[in-house]
Amino acid sequence: MLAQQAAAASQQLPTVVTRLPEQFNAQVLANAVLLIDKPPRWSSTDVVRELKRTLRLQKVCHGGPLDAHATGLLIVLMGAASRLTPKLEPLERTYSGTLKLGAATTTYDATGQATQTSPWRHISDADLATAAVKFQGEVLQVPCMWSSTKYRNRPLRWYAERGEEVRREPKAVHISSMQLQARSDEVHFRVVASKGASMRVLAHDLGATLGCGAHLLRLRREAIGGFKVDTAWSLEVLLPLATKYGKGYKFVQPA
Fold it and tell me: pLDDT of 216-247, one tens digit each?
């Protein structure tokens, strides 16, 4: 019986969970999409692990990771909806955030040690506009050592923590648009880019192009294709509901 239900669910379009606790039921969660507004200091894996534990589900995955220090949209796929992961890959990602001019760091963000400091006050709006044009279209990015990019089955971060630096092959990504607005040494940006484009690497490379160094201060993912963070659940709201109703969700009648 369960096998028949799973087979039937795999043929249906998944439900995007928008109503709780009404949609805490076996039929919905067997093939569902949950939009999460990920808070800082939670890794994408942390979110998946907590939802799997709280909702007592076996098959839960995400549709594309987000840096632990970043906030914003994380698409969580449950049950048969996990098959949709490849369909999310071509969708463009929209990011907003802030980078800081005048210093490059080991991690390409504010958590690392400064590797270069340089004057930045001479950078004009025209300089930023010219640099933004250079980074639109297909660009090559070399992964940061302090990242989850794999090398010989281990994340690059594993080597960096041991003081090792390994050769990283550049990868091609596509940046559809980039908007920059400077406020003193902080530059606010909005970027639409392909899957795999790293905003930390983009901040670092932009600083190198400007000649003053730069690193990422804040990052938020606003959208993946037509999925918007405005309609996502915060964990502050979701997890208490999941804890309260999760144990009995199998007995809630489908909405």
Answer: 999 999 999 999 999 999 999 999 988 887 65
Query: If phi over 0 gives left and psi between -120 and 50 gives alpha, with beta otherwise, what is residue 185?
Result: alpha
Q: Do 204 and 215 meet the contact criterion of CB atoms below 8 Å apart?
A: yes
CB atoms within 10 A of CB 211: 13
Residue 101 and residue 183 in one domain: yes
**Do 35 and 233 meet the contact criterion of CB atoms below 8 Å apart?**
yes
pLDDT at 184 over 80: yes
pLDDT tens track for 153-163 = 999 999 999 99
Give SS3 for 89.
coil
Which residues are annotated as catalytic?
A: 67
Same domain, 125 and 181: yes
Query: Among candidates 234, 200, 244, which has minimal Cα distance to 100?
Result: 200
Rg of the chain over Cα atoms, rounded to whole angstroms, equals 20
Range of the domain at 172: 93-224
Q: Please tell me whether residues 85 and 124 are part of one structural domain.
A: no
Which CATH number is 41's domain given?
3.30.70
